[in-house]
Every structure is written in C-alpha cells, then in structure tokens.
Amino acid sequence: MVQFFCLIVLIAVFIPVGQGYQHYANQPHWPPPEQMNYRINPSHDPGFNEIPIITAAAQSWENSVDFDFNYLGTTGIASSGVDGTNVIYWHAGGAGGVLGYCQFWYWTPSYETFEADIWFDSMDAWWDRSGTCSGLTFDLQSVCAHEMGHALGLDHEAQENNSCPLMQSLIGPCVSRDPCQDDIDGATYFYGIAGPSPTPDPMPVTSPAGIGLTLLLLGSAMVFPLFKRKREKR
Ligand SMILES: [Zn+2]
Predict the structure, then answer these.
(1) What is the CATH number for 48?
(2) Residue pLDDT, tens place only, 201-233
(3) CA-CA distance, 116 to 129, in Å (whole number)?
(4) Number of separate domains in the chain
(5) Is residue 207 part of a domain?
(6) Are 108 and 1 a contacting pair, CB within 8 Å?
(7) Vertex 48, ends 94 and 140: CA angle to 5°?
(8) In which band, very low, low, confident or very high, does the pLDDT at 199 lie, cut at 50, 70 and 90?
(9) Where in the sequence is the domain holding 131, given as residue range(s)?
(10) How does pLDDT run across 73-98, given as a tens digit for each residue?
C-alpha cells in the first residue's frame, strides 16, 4: 500500500502557480452510481453541532458536481480502515499541524474508489463555524469541503489566492467553503456537471473485488503549520 503525506506536497505547493486542478496518479475515482454514503462519529464537541456543517460541505460539491454525498447517520467507528463504512470522525492528531485528513481506497487495475474516511483533529481547539474570518480559528466547513475533494479524487494544487482553489494544501483563518471553478473542473472531469434535473446514474459496474486485484491506499492531508499563518494572509 502506498501513502502520501501532505508535508511532501507542501514543499512544492507554491511553485507551479496556475497549473490547474490535479488528479492523483492513474486518476482513481468513484464508479457509477458516483456516490459516497457516509456516517459521522460526533465523539468530540468542537463547541457546536458538526453534523449540519459537514452536510453543508457535501452540498457545496453537489451544487456543481454530479456526485452524491449521502449522510446515513452517526456511527461509533473512530478509525480509518477498509470496513465497509465511509466515516467522518474526530481524531486526536496532536495540536497544530494537520487539521484534517482523508484516506481513500481503490481497486487496481480499475482505479475505482470504493471507500473513503475523513478525520478532523480533535486536539486543535480552534474550530469555528461562523463563516467569517475570526483571527486564529479555522472554519470546519472549509476543511471538510477540502477533504471531500480528496475523496472525489482531487490532489492538492497551487495556491491562487486565500480562497482559491479549495484544493490548495494550506488554509488560512478566512473561509473557503465552496469549490472554485478549477476545483469544479477537476471533479466534473470524473462525474459531470450537476444539473437541475439529475438523470439517474447507470447501474454500478460490478467489480470483482478480491481475487486478482490489488488494494492501494492513498492519503492526503490539510496541513497548517503555525509559521504559515502570515503567509496565508498575504
Ligand atoms: Zn489536502
């Protein structure tokens, strides 16, 4: 299994400015019916109800991309792994540094994604839901939308400004809740554009999971080192 860490990406993120959206190698993404059913483990209290925040982040993608994030309710699952449940949960990752993390798994050689987990760092006491720039706090909806972008198959790309693209690897205290056009282009490449009257997706293509297939792990993270704060505000 292969795992990528954001710190490596961080080094290059400011170099290829304007390069556009990035897919992972071999373009893993969800096959039809192009949806991610997920559950939330609300084990940590960030000071507000995170469930409507997370579903709003999902909606921000669904507004533009023909992909469905379906919330199925809460769960007690508190770790990442191939267990048949896409879970969004809190993880004690240590104060500072990584705010959120997405791992997803796909089959080879089809490169069809079949599971994704996302966590937010419960040890960072700076989560916010206000939707405004508020000093040293970070907007949970913005980070969630970013991590969901990874689940869709989008890698980090170069920063354009403080709010675009959503898939830049750093986030400042300001809000970036909605995918920018470049993020949308990267996702609609796989899933198409959301329409006012969505047509039913074709039936799922049966993938013979197991024999002869290799399971790969791909991870990514949103990193925010403290020393980057001023740089983000420029
Ligand atoms: Zn990221």
Answers:
(1) 3.40.390.10
(2) 544 433 333 323 344 444 554 444 332 322 222
(3) 24
(4) 1
(5) no
(6) no
(7) 55
(8) low
(9) 4-195+215-228
(10) 999 999 999 999 999 999 998 776 78
Per the domain annotation, does 146 fall within a domain? yes
- Ligand 1 centroid, distance to 41 Cα (angstroms): 21
Task: Tell me if 46 is assigned to some domain.
Answer: yes
Q: How far is ligand 1, taken at its centre, from the CA of residue 144, in Å?
A: 10
Question: Distance, CA 199 to ligand 1 centroid (Å)?
Answer: 31
Q: Which ranges constitute the DSSP H helices of 153-202? A: 181-191
Beta bridge pairs of residue 95? none
Question: How far away, in angstroms, is 149 Cα from ligand 1 center?
Answer: 8
In the reported structure, the alpha carbon of residue 77 is separated from the centroid of ligand 1 by a whole-number distance in angstroms of 22
Query: Residues near 184 by Cβ (< 8 Å), separated by ≥ 6?
Result: 64, 65
What is the whole-number distance in angstroms between the Cα of residue 168 and the centre of ligand 1?
7
Q: Which has more confidence, 210 or 112?
A: 112
Which residues are CB-neighbours of 8 under 8 A, at least 6 positions away? none
CA distances in angstroms from 36 to 114, 117, 176, 192, listed in the order given: 9, 10, 22, 15
Tokens read off for 87:
């879970």
**Model-level pTM greater than 0.90?**
no
